[in-house]
Structure formats: structure tokens, C-alpha cells
Amino acid sequence: MNNAVRQHPETTHGDTRGEGPDSARGIPDELNSPDGLQHTVTRIWEDVLRLDGLTAHANFFELGGHSLTASQVISRMRQALRVEIPLAAFFDHPTIGELTALTARQLAGADSAADRTENNVN
Question: 70: domain range?
């Protein structure tokens, strides 16, 4: 019997990735919940802006963010969440809550597209 422990790759925050439906895209299972997703977006903003205690109503630009720091947030979200947020969308969704909702919709849309592709292959 093989006693080897199966290791999961780590996320950018050191968490291990699960084996849920999104694990094929590299998205940790804990991000399947709105709270988990918002927590991740909040941590990214806090890291980039070097602030603590941000809430869902925090406005990126009122906190001192600008297009260059928005690009950093977008890059980190791409790495952590495997989602592409256009810079223009950042200006339309400048709060953590709004950006989290947009991200959730994009993740859901990507899952739907993957399901459609998978169903067409089978």
C-alpha cells in the first residue's frame, strides 16, 4: 500500500488548492463562497494599498488608489482567481463589494463556458 501523502499546489497566500469543480481552473474551493471571494479581493486591496481593515464599501480611488495600483490589483486577481478584470471595469466598480460581485459573475460565466465546451466535446 502506498503511504505517500498527496500534495496540493499552494495559492499565492499559501493555502492549498482543493479538488472541487473549480480546482481544474486553479481556484481554491474556499473561493466558491461570496465571503471567501470578498475576503480574497479585500486582502489583495489591502496588500496593494498597504492598508488594513477595509470593508466592502471601501472605494479604491478614495483610498488613494489610481490606475497604476489598479493594474497591480488586476494582476494579483488574475494570479489568485484566474479571472481577467478590465481596467475600465475598475472605474465602474470602485468598491470591494462591487468588484467582488463583478468577479463572481465573471467566474460564474467562465464556469458556464467551460461546461458548454465540455458538453460539446462529449
Answer: 23-116
Beta-carbon-side half-sphere exposure of residue 92 (alpha carbons within 13 Å): 8
Q: How many domains does the chain have?
A: 1
> Is residue 68 assigned to a domain?
yes
Per-chain mean pLDDT for the chain: 77
pLDDT for res 14: 47
Q: Is the pLDDT assigned to residue 61 strictly greater than 90? A: yes
Contact 62, 69 (CB under 8 A): no
